[in-house]
Structures
1.
Amino acid sequence: MVDSESIKRILEQVAAGGLSTEDAFARLRTLPFEDIGFARVDHHRRLRRGFPEVIYARGKTPGQVVEIAQRLLDVDGLALATFVEPDVHAALAERFDGVEYDDLARVASIGRMPEPEAGVPPLAVVTAGTSDIPVARQASWIARAGSCPVDEVFDVGVAGLHRLLHVLERLQAAGAIVVVAGMEGALPSVVAGLVAVPVIAVPTSVGYGASFGGVAALLAMLNSCAGGVAVVNIDNGFGGGLIGAMICRRARLPE
Amino acid sequence: MVDSESIKRILEQVAAGGLSTEDAFARLRTLPFEDIGFARVDHHRRLRRGFPEVIYARGKTPGQVVEIAQRLLDVDGLALATFVEPDVHAALAERFDGVEYDDLARVASIGRMPEPEAGVPPLAVVTAGTSDIPVARQASWIARAGSCPVDEVFDVGVAGLHRLLHVLERLQAAGAIVVVAGMEGALPSVVAGLVAVPVIAVPTSVGYGASFGGVAALLAMLNSCAGGVAVVNIDNGFGGGLIGAMICRRARLPE
Amino acid sequence: MVDSESIKRILEQVAAGGLSTEDAFARLRTLPFEDIGFARVDHHRRLRRGFPEVIYARGKTPGQVVEIAQRLLDVDGLALATFVEPDVHAALAERFDGVEYDDLARVASIGRMPEPEAGVPPLAVVTAGTSDIPVARQASWIARAGSCPVDEVFDVGVAGLHRLLHVLERLQAAGAIVVVAGMEGALPSVVAGLVAVPVIAVPTSVGYGASFGGVAALLAMLNSCAGGVAVVNIDNGFGGGLIGAMICRRARLPE
Amino acid sequence: MVDSESIKRILEQVAAGGLSTEDAFARLRTLPFEDIGFARVDHHRRLRRGFPEVIYARGKTPGQVVEIAQRLLDVDGLALATFVEPDVHAALAERFDGVEYDDLARVASIGRMPEPEAGVPPLAVVTAGTSDIPVARQASWIARAGSCPVDEVFDVGVAGLHRLLHVLERLQAAGAIVVVAGMEGALPSVVAGLVAVPVIAVPTSVGYGASFGGVAALLAMLNSCAGGVAVVNIDNGFGGGLIGAMICRRARLPE
Amino acid sequence: MVDSESIKRILEQVAAGGLSTEDAFARLRTLPFEDIGFARVDHHRRLRRGFPEVIYARGKTPGQVVEIAQRLLDVDGLALATFVEPDVHAALAERFDGVEYDDLARVASIGRMPEPEAGVPPLAVVTAGTSDIPVARQASWIARAGSCPVDEVFDVGVAGLHRLLHVLERLQAAGAIVVVAGMEGALPSVVAGLVAVPVIAVPTSVGYGASFGGVAALLAMLNSCAGGVAVVNIDNGFGGGLIGAMICRRARLPE
Amino acid sequence: MVDSESIKRILEQVAAGGLSTEDAFARLRTLPFEDIGFARVDHHRRLRRGFPEVIYARGKTPGQVVEIAQRLLDVDGLALATFVEPDVHAALAERFDGVEYDDLARVASIGRMPEPEAGVPPLAVVTAGTSDIPVARQASWIARAGSCPVDEVFDVGVAGLHRLLHVLERLQAAGAIVVVAGMEGALPSVVAGLVAVPVIAVPTSVGYGASFGGVAALLAMLNSCAGGVAVVNIDNGFGGGLIGAMICRRARLPE
Amino acid sequence: MVDSESIKRILEQVAAGGLSTEDAFARLRTLPFEDIGFARVDHHRRLRRGFPEVIYARGKTPGQVVEIAQRLLDVDGLALATFVEPDVHAALAERFDGVEYDDLARVASIGRMPEPEAGVPPLAVVTAGTSDIPVARQASWIARAGSCPVDEVFDVGVAGLHRLLHVLERLQAAGAIVVVAGMEGALPSVVAGLVAVPVIAVPTSVGYGASFGGVAALLAMLNSCAGGVAVVNIDNGFGGGLIGAMICRRARLPE
Amino acid sequence: MVDSESIKRILEQVAAGGLSTEDAFARLRTLPFEDIGFARVDHHRRLRRGFPEVIYARGKTPGQVVEIAQRLLDVDGLALATFVEPDVHAALAERFDGVEYDDLARVASIGRMPEPEAGVPPLAVVTAGTSDIPVARQASWIARAGSCPVDEVFDVGVAGLHRLLHVLERLQAAGAIVVVAGMEGALPSVVAGLVAVPVIAVPTSVGYGASFGGVAALLAMLNSCAGGVAVVNIDNGFGGGLIGAMICRRARLPE
């Protein structure tokens, strides 16, 4: 079993300046991760990143997901998995108590989600349409798993601009904004033109024909004429939520 | 030389119901077009379409452009050419008097441009940025060549939405709106969400990297979540202006 | 509940010149739309656009579609939905009486479709082949929902040109022509070369191999050498019908 | 030097059935081709194919082209080169008398072009527009180099269908038709729908924006809904002319 | 019902020189095709092309396919359909006697296939691998439906070149060669380098990953360094067989 | 001229809670921007965003750039332009004193760059190779123009991982990291796996062949398996620097 | 039946220098392969290549796979098949005893796998993640079928670099390294930067959105900035293992 | 200055088993590389890889290339640069004596190239055409710089297969084969089907139209149906030569 206390001690020394990163790196390298044959479970990623390790369930058998979840639970008390299809959910529910499953977002959590941390500005999670909600929910899940408060604003796309104007104040108050949109992907540009908050754009595969599974939205977002926009992969609500929440959490750090 | 009177008579009979389209078609087929070896100059396209035949100068030698322009001038009294590079302009200016050359739009006209037709609502020609103006100008040229009034509104992109709000009334009054935008191509969606006028979107190659020479804008426009938008080829201001002006002109026909 | 009378009053003032668009916009922004959590139902889009709001059912749960349809019915008396799969149809049929379902076009309507408006020229809806009919039907549905008469002409592709020549007169009489074609997508160019009516080209995913799900047809249409053609998204019969019907309806306005 | 008589003898034996292809192949393999260091000049391709070896000049230095041309001239009495830029032409003209250079098609011939062979039906070479002529000319060159008569018909694109109807009889009389078109590439489908002759479609890079350097035309041609169409590479007039002329020449063989 | 005798008479006059193509065209246009609502069945395509009209069953309901087949049977005595899935086959088998179904090639024929025509050289149909056979079979079907003899040679791909060398004589004797290959699509180049017969290359979607559903093979074939190769759409064995058989049949015409 | 004091007052009221964003927006909309014909210079973007408006010089004439720069200088005392080619630089240098020109990054500044703001953590700007430096420099420019300190670390790509390990401490201390890389674009993933700081990845067009002008790097970055990475457009060092510096600056705000 | 002894004799003569390759080739060409109608089973590929012929089961019917396996078993005593779906496995298991089936890798073997050959350095097979294991297993299978020892190292992706550092020695000791990775595909570059062993990179389709089914990983690997990397097709673990094992085996040959 | 002796000692200890790779890695990390501001020159890559560090000159200023070359010369006595345009060559020639410049391959070497190492089998470098020679030459350069003998075989493409058969013995004798081809890229498959030697395929941008700058050849090579082929980037003769020579050199190691 991993001695997570020793990991913490090493990192505290780094933070305190008593240990160079390089030396810390050398020591961390010698710490055991768990080699369970088909996976090497990385217990100090949480320590490095402030967010739990998340299991990418696609391409793994239900048995593999259960096994990895068990190791994470043992050490962290929380396991989060994405791309969880019903058969994987069933396997998790059979093994663990209190599995929470969001079938829209295909996310499952096992163990206790943390409380939002005081003093951290919320992550605004915005969608252009109703069909984008499943991807947006991934962002909310990972942010909350990292103790970041979340403010969800759904269905405010550019075809009805007055709906967006109603929520400008909430967006202005966020630490970062995750904007989730498919089809032409215009919403991040419009939002970034209106508020002075970093925008993480998440293109979705909502659309058909020349949306090419989200490519149209992805390209639009990469070409945003409004500064302050960066983009993650198509349908990667999880990734957008992670960097968005990292930004929100750091907004508090210097206090 | 072509007897354009006879063409008109045939078409008038069709309009009057005295001749079926099919019979007219059969007769028109027997009318001479001019075969000048490298081109077959089509003198009744103007009659069919209400707009002059336009010379696509790219891929033609200066001599070929001059020759075709001469034939169009002889019959129509007006020749318009697009993609006119300086060497072609020089050849035209040497042969004809009063060539008007728009070096931004790379359009040249020889002969007399018509006056705007009374009672036709204007074609609004809108650009997202200053760099889109050369393409927009193509639209204005062909519309004016077809006697359609034009209202130009430049640099009202989505990154500064308040600039667009200032011109809503002018857009609302148009017979059709040509919206010219590069980069993320979001402007047509936003415009179509605000006004109840048909929008012809013209993507431009303004941008770099993942704009892929205008593909990002093209895809965004094709995927517009706001209804009432149709799209033409990248940088095809001419094509956008042509269908836009056709719509404006027909808005008057039933009077 | 929304007071649609007040919306109408505002817009009438605009039409009458007694209120600027900008002021009207400011007022409209303060009018309630309905926030039902997963969607913000936009009741004044119909007023802005002259066509009912249409529910894009893909990516929405049957329950969400039913809920939105209910709100639209309450205000407009008509709800139209596209991309309606059988499970969504079943949910609609269970809740509402008189659901009309076109399983070819995957369109459902609830409530009363309006009568065609007198004096509006018909929208011609043309297909290259039999396999393109489902997409074409979407165009007919939205046009009729907007009170625009429709003239359907199916299976007149370029491989048998004589079939097209038989219907030239009907096409010439249209206010606009929606041309629906897959494979090489050549029909819009040929139609636009024969008649002087704006052509809205709808590429379809009919084809295989290097048709790339409709991309071949889309590109052909964007590159049409015949002026007067604009294009909508692949399989977007709905979008083509909407702008086509907008053009037809405006052809009557100045009377 | 190569003893072409011995090659002929081998092949005649094959034709007469006195030698299996396999044995002939083994013998041919032992015949000298000329290894000139940077190239291995293939003197029996003409014998195998009925057409002269053609020098693809792009990517070769002027000196290399001259050297290969010399070897071909020595054996065949004719050298043909494509993609000949002015500097290569200059090098050829300096070394050889009577170089014929088509600067539009960028083709050069050295030596004596053969006469058209009696009894061979002509290859029709058709273009949609004037800008497609340089590519079409490549087809004419290689056909004539193979003794195949050529019938050139230029500028009969689908936007003015009546121009095409004028030449139907000439097309019907051809042994094969090479149809050269850029932009939307619709012409081969229309031609193949009207005549019962094999059509070789040559897409060109004429166009801009979403023509993607000829890809739009290429895809349209590959997806032709009219049977009897096969396609060669973009701007490959030479390849289209070669297979077209092969078909024409074989149409006579059984006599 | 269509009077096919009158069609024949018109065409015979053309063949005899007693009627211009143009006049014939005008007359043919007045002949009834059958408008059955969802399709316009083209009875004189067979006459124009020498091959039966083939029903493209994809995207059509079983009922539509049955209906069109009935009309073709009535006039031609033969109906051929491609992309026939089992449900369509079942519908055909229920209505017609003697349906022949090739479940590999997904082709169905109803009525009597003609005998091979004497004096026509065979169409060689060659595959690189076993997995390419279903596509190759489409080519054989249409060729035989057009009375062209067929010589099938399967599994002679470039990874085992000695297998190809065994069949060179058979290929040399063909009127045209259809080469069907997936993956890297190299076989047409190799075949065209060895024999002096026109090669129609058919790329297949056999492969995975960077074969991109046949695009790799398609591009390889379009870029063939060996002249005498033209290409049809991915998996379009039918189209390859049609033009291949047209070439074979014309090889006999001048006799 | 614009009364920037009044803009500030409005925004201060918003910040103080005495004015809703909506009301502020309405007021801002009524403030004059400068319409100079070909551009509408947006003077309150700086106020909204905390960074100066930057002139995108590509596609603008030198005269247009000079004119816009003048307006920005008049109000802000600083003008920054990107994509500045030598002719534009010459025009700027002729009109203004003290133009600073970075010919590697193609950035020009006119007027006084601000001092770095105390208490703001630095933006780390990292490149994989020497050839990526010009793009990285864009990031440094905009960050410094927004008063954000910058720490540049060049040539630490993954092919020599020991070079990266030397600078881990500097990266760990940053407020955000801009990672600039071409070719396979692997560096952002590796960096994000080692440090707990938000990473903005900037793909560059450095590379050739299958780098497709930066697409390979772009895709790699979008697919980063290490969380905490978001991406901007190819070669968009400016955009990466802008959002990176926005994050750094907000890291201080709660103090 | 094939006389494999005679094949061996020919090749031994070549190895011994008593027969030129060319003569051997000529003789081999005359040896019978088995033509079983739908396939030509190539019994001397094993002899030429040192690895058994492998059956690519995709696109073949279960019966075809069984038949080919029988022929290979008869001659080689071992048959290996890839892309074996459960129905094919069932057919194999019904016909043969001792079928070994790896349902993760979809590989089946019939007959006796050889022992690893002494003195051959192992092939290291490395994966970035757990989801890449099925592809990696293909590599292991073919290597072992060719008597090459295998060292599997799974789940050492770049997001947790310390896991890779643990296995450097094992990688350094390999004869070649097959690196299997999806998503951003960065692992081959990092490995090749650390060890002096040829790296064969295998991109996988693990990922979603802008991974485009493995294209992102493929492009990253092709653009590796670290020399000593070559790439095979997406998900082609078999191909990567084959060339990797060929390299390992030759590393021993000169002894 | 770097003490290369100490580097050698460390690595010798590793080779001798007296030092773990991990410990060696830790020590190497502490050794100085040279930080010259715009580049970090990596002097132990040669030691790790057996080949000199090569300067990728594209995107670097002539001054930067000269500076890096100086550092490499000081330590290694040899500097090699690729993508050397004439201006960079001029700068090198001005600074250093004895610069060897291959203007076809755009490679420059400064200092003494090593002799071929005895006992190493040659790297065969094969091209399909004359136009592929510049890329092939890159492969020869890097192989020779790594002391690997080279056997160049040019212009043996598949359109004239007999030319390839002449050199089979030379290919069979190689340690590895680099096959360089553009257009349809079929040569590597054919070579790998004939000989039992690992093939490194190098696609080139030779071709036009649908060769898409080498993509057609790249895809063909990735989809090779003949095992034993791996691929490098388009036009990356250098990369192909490097891994090819690594394989050749290791073929000797166990002695």
Note: The mean pLDDT of chain G is 84.
2.
Amino acid sequence: MPQTLYDTITALAKRRGLYYPSFEIYGGQSGFVTYGDPGTKLKRNIETQWRTHFTNRQNILEIEAPLINPAKVFEASGHIDNFKEHSTTCTQCNRSYRADHLIEEKTGLENVEAQGAEAIQSLLREHKIKCPRCGGPLQDPTLILTMFQTEIGAVNGETAYARPETAQGMFTNFRRAYLHAREKLPFAIAQKGKVLRNEISPRRGMTRLREFTIIEMELFFDPENPDCPYMDEVADQPVKLITEKMLEEGNTEPIETTIHQALQDNLILTPWQAYFMGVSQRFITSLGVPPEKQRFRAHLPDERAHYSAQTYDHEALLEWGWLEVAGHAYRTDYDLKAHAEAQEPTVLRQDGTRYVPHVVEPSFGLDRLFYVTLENAYERRGKRNILRIPRSLAPTQIQVNPLVTRDGLTGKAREIHAALQEAGYTTQYDESGSIGRRYARADEIGTPLSITIDYDTQDDQAVTIRDRDTWTQVRTPIQELPDKLQGYFSGRLEILDLGEKIERD
Amino acid sequence: MPQTLYDTITALAKRRGLYYPSFEIYGGQSGFVTYGDPGTKLKRNIETQWRTHFTNRQNILEIEAPLINPAKVFEASGHIDNFKEHSTTCTQCNRSYRADHLIEEKTGLENVEAQGAEAIQSLLREHKIKCPRCGGPLQDPTLILTMFQTEIGAVNGETAYARPETAQGMFTNFRRAYLHAREKLPFAIAQKGKVLRNEISPRRGMTRLREFTIIEMELFFDPENPDCPYMDEVADQPVKLITEKMLEEGNTEPIETTIHQALQDNLILTPWQAYFMGVSQRFITSLGVPPEKQRFRAHLPDERAHYSAQTYDHEALLEWGWLEVAGHAYRTDYDLKAHAEAQEPTVLRQDGTRYVPHVVEPSFGLDRLFYVTLENAYERRGKRNILRIPRSLAPTQIQVNPLVTRDGLTGKAREIHAALQEAGYTTQYDESGSIGRRYARADEIGTPLSITIDYDTQDDQAVTIRDRDTWTQVRTPIQELPDKLQGYFSGRLEILDLGEKIERD
């Protein structure tokens, strides 16, 4: 069986410490991953990129609310009633599965969950679906709450749940954030945080985890004054949409339009949602996913979450197909009304009338973005693995190598390495193995530039800079390094701008 | 009753969105806080400062392991047996308390927990301690596991716990990290992460939380070759120690020594621990806590955790007394041996012998650092609150104000604001209320510099810069702003270096 790109990435990630399955030494536990050092750094860089695109604006308040919440929060939000999956258990080996997923695998049907409990039960029987592991008969499916449950207080505790998303942290803090935003709309609350979903039988590693990180925001606006003042930034940006109407007609070939036009044509219901979809496409593009591998796919009414008037999934194309990397939901006034018994949901207009703000939510799964970044960065060139991670995201920016470890080269190399670290670059000093092997290591972990100190360095006070993507080598005076590197990592310069090209034999 | 500094900080933090109690709208839940926007930023800046001091070195691998762990991990680590507290419950109102804390409050004794279950039971009876809320009789104390328990898998789940510290994530990943460190010691694994401790009855808000963030690292070294190559960085640094021997003699007046001398005198058992204690003092000093408000206090043998050969708490002086902000534990080979059935604990020396690496652990509670930073930054000057947060940590670096909102001043102010944001500063644009009120707001939230655009700006192409700490005002040409601000925030320039001083009436 040929290795899939997913397998290749998984193996590379494990070998180089980007990520790997958790609790390996205790037999593993599906749905959990651990990020190693370069992975932790890459993940943090993606998070920073999100802030650059979304939150670094006044009136966008980033908060950090707890992971564990008392049951009351999720009773009010609707999660206790709705955050459920269709589970079926093998009567023979006692393993449990998502019934809708088993049906999808057997029949090729899509989005079976939306058909509801009765249809799922019928389909399971109709297609005579058995336990995929032991072949035993399956019980009729039941709806199971898939939040992690616990108790607050070690004695006489109170029922509590780990949040399955970070949104309720924003809605339950609406009133206080509104004060901090000086009682003016529109404003937004943003949050990055761990969430837990107690999936029945998670598979496909990084794309369906039980513990993962969400980065999302809730933008509150007046439905009678819904304009977004930043619309010009993205108005002309081309996007590909698969609308609700197209889906109803069975048409999944996206139409190409612009943010502005989609809003004009009422394909996107409200300006802030349109704006964030535009920003979302820029953000995903900045991770190295070209626009032609992106699309927005609407949810059908029976597929939408209970709170949403319109949802577009932002999808990225991977080798195996399209993967949801973000959800753009127009939540209307559902959430503030849900908590209305505990928190005043209305705010004052200038004319003295009161209203419940509406909400749009751009929400990203950070671990999926991480995987998508890796798969898009991966290139096989001859026998080499290369991760062409965008230079603003690379876990290590510069690798510093003495050509050999004798004749005083290491001293100069360490000196340059220390100076680059001092200047704020993330660097790696590497003196082990042939220079070819060291370049190969840099390529595989996605380090954009390698600097090599060789026998000529003492004479010409210059070093060789090699880039990961083209393997071009240039010669650069040491004293020009600060300027040149600054230019390269700010995107102003390319490798050939950094020095004189070295023609290799 | 006079307001304590703690009350003042708590009120300020709530009003300005630094932090506040979680789930307020649902009646609150002790042991949980929510960080608002400036709090989230300050917390992140402290985390970055930690990296600058501790982790930005090759061979320090930062990882991110899961919060939820299968029971096996904590059985092996010893937590299931040891992570317990002495609980007592009121037979009348059914409220539960930590028995040792009740005894401490009634008697003034310290560290009652270390005396063990029988002594606690006797003390509770001897001092006739009753329920502090209803006066009812208390049950005999029992040892209660204080980890949050849950199940992995929504159907037929497996018992699991939320980690009460991040250390096990490092120990269970030792083997893989060792490979990524190219099988060379010393190396360290670092981690920042949420942890959960199911305290029986948490009080005193920010200093005893059920959900909080730890930043810590585990340094692995060869006990036969324990030297730390970076010792020179901190060797001469003065520190105040209360040693085990002093405590045994009832002497709590710290001795003043240096890191080097303390190691020479065997007051600190191993070089890496001494090194990290030196770095720790620098780190805490960088948060604005002067060295005279810091000390290291040893644990007595019966007070130490089960894994430790020597522990020093790093303490900071607050208004109400000394607070532990870090623990420096020499964990020897306890942890790798604890997981030895699941993971090979030994590594190879160059001479072919094998050994189990020893571990030292510098561990910080990020939320406590946050509070300590605020309390040390707080100054009351007349009727003003000032947060003198170190300029490298301030949530907002620069506030930009038009003097008034008419006569075209706002346009220029917005332009300068946008340019500063573009240059990477965290900024706040403020045009509401008198300039005095705006300066007061900047002072209270700890913004180091305010820039005001006034009627002269159009003529002299200059602005007024005002600093938070001295209220000095200087006049600076707009074109010099980039250089001057860069100098100020890198610590090279002070307010009087930024422009010509304006003498106020």
Note: Chain B has 17 helices and 27 strands.
